[in-house]
Amino acid sequence: MHYEFISVAQEARLTLITINRPEVLNALHPPAHHELATAFDAFQHDSSQWVAIVTGAGERAFCAGNDLKFRVAEGRQRMPGSGFAGLTARFDLDKPVLAAVNGLAVGGGFELALACDLIVADERAQFALPEVRVGLAALAGGLHRLPREIGLKAAMGIALTGRRVDAAEASRLGFVNEVAPAGGSVDIARRWAEEILQGGPLAVRAAKQTILRGLDERGLSEALSLQGQYPAVLAMYASEDAIEGPRAFAEKRFPRWQGGQLADETAPHHYPARKGTPP
Fold first, then answer.
1. pLDDT, tens only, 13-60
2. Per the residue annotation, which of 4, 59, 131, 217 is the catalytic one?
3. Any idea which architecture 6-196 has in CATH?
């Protein structure tokens, strides 16, 4: 598909989605939201794609949130049902998504990053929810995800003031997994993606779904009692991969993951080349 405001590249099992509006710090307007929704739809339903990275074009910004100038000029327009950037309200995506934050991630851009499963931040990155400073609130999930990730008081300190948080503080607070050298966020995110791709894809999805659904259960006892009923867990146990993984371990070789599909020699490699020796 041809995109005007984003670019999408597939690298074996990895999908790289880049917001491509650097002239406005990768701020998003409704056409860009819908393109991102389409790209995430395609990733979600493509059985050959197991992990995604989302980043921004240029060196200044990951995403500066909503394009308010466009909104003032054109008025409010319909957003995709899957939320800001096609991701913040997408609650049925069990494949992992990583954010490579290469600069400013403010407003909806911060909310987009928080909706991802891991965040790698350029050392120059800055995060903020500045909506209160323009009479608005961060209602694309940021006000719910942030306190769940860093605790109530720390989240209040960010949300109520609109202040910016640099990459080092974000790492200390715990919502950034790793700080990358300047210009290196995508490379470090690719390294994380390659490590994820070495695991069984259905097991990775089961782990993600179990963590997120478990957080919504009433308590640990209920989470433990219900996890065996989660769809991704059932799919994992019913797959050939659940047989292949232990067999490969016993035979001291790397697994040949099928991801619930029959092996296809024409498909991209099931996993990236590994260093070292098998388990």
1. 999 999 999 999 999 999 999 999 999 999 999 999 999 999 999 999
2. 131
3. Alpha-Beta Complex (3.90)
